[in-house]
Amino acid sequence: MEDYPKTLVELEMRFATDEACRAYLYSLRWPNGFVCPQCGGKRMSLISNGLYLCLACGRKASVMQGTIFQDSHLPLLTWFRAMWYVCVQKNGASALGLQRALGLGSYRTSWLLLHKLRKAMIRPHRDRLSGEIEVDETYVGGVRKGIRGRGAAGKSLVLIAAEKNGKGLGRIRLTCIPTFSSDILQTALHSMVKEGSTIITDGLNSYNFLSKAGFNHIIEFPDEDLNKCRLARCHLVASLMKRWILGTLQGSVSVEHLQDYLNEFTFRFNRRKSKSRGKLFYRLAQYAIETEAVTYSDITKHNI
């Protein structure tokens, strides 16, 4: 049963203490009761608030251990309010906006918190797309001199997979790729699309492997009728994603963190029809519990 606050008032009343937040995370991580991460034992003894002793193997386990919350010095109250703030921002949240909204002491703290949440926006072992999928690539980055189109200099290459939903657009997947070589595309598409699905591409030779790799492959060649847009779903996603980057992030996205921003855009886009901000909060909390801890060093990669 999905359990989440529906409004900010309900969030504030329900999660007024760290203990209440910890109890909620417990219900998400162990909905059927405690399970030891080490041995799978189900009998435990509560040592302190949030710390449990497995009676089978003697290991101590925490609700936050092995999750995005691990080793954080921030109160869970702050985490919960940050998750709510991120989810209610229709067009995305900035680190400066989050810092001001929560009264955080430094921009670095807000930046790190936001990037950790972005890491959690993609559920580990998520379902792959299926059915009919349009696939195309686009470049992300500022205006640079040099060639345009495929091979554009100084830009980041992003692979787009857009699921058909009748005449409309279903779920999407976005991933950074270094090149559009066959090997790179094959690895990326196997992680994004379920085998047996139909993949629709343009005539790029790098996609010729698809039929032998377990996919049905349809090629849509350029049409002389300019009013009939080929791979229209991918083009729409690319346009919206670039507009979002320009509006929310002022167009400034480093190569090192681009995948995190793509994760946020994907999370928001795939839930664009949800009328409940509380449900988005619930999903983000679920994914945060399933996402392994990352450190400041992991995220910055020495680029800040």
Estimated share of beta-strand residues: 15-25%
Characterize the largest beta sheet: strand count, sense, and whether it forms a barrel.
Answer: 5 strands, mixed
Known CATH architecture of the largest domain: 2-Layer Sandwich
**Looking at this structure, what is the CATH superfamily of the largest domain?**
Ribonuclease H-like superfamily/Ribonuclease H
* Structure classification: alpha/beta
Number of domains in the coordinates? Answer: 2
Global geometry: globular
Order of helices and strands: HHEEEHHHEEEHEEHHHH
In total, how many beta strands?
Answer: 8
Tally of individual helices: 10
Spans with pLDDT under 50 lasting ≥5 residues?
Answer: none
Radius of gyration: 22 Å
The end-to-end distance, rounded to whole angstroms, is: 42 Å
The top level CATH class name of the largest domain: Alpha Beta
Determine the CATH topology of the largest domain.
Answer: Nucleotidyltransferase, domain 5
Q: Averaging pLDDT over every residue, what do you get? A: 87
Strand order of the largest sheet: 6-5-4-7-8
What fraction, in percent, of the residue positions are helical?
A: 25-40%
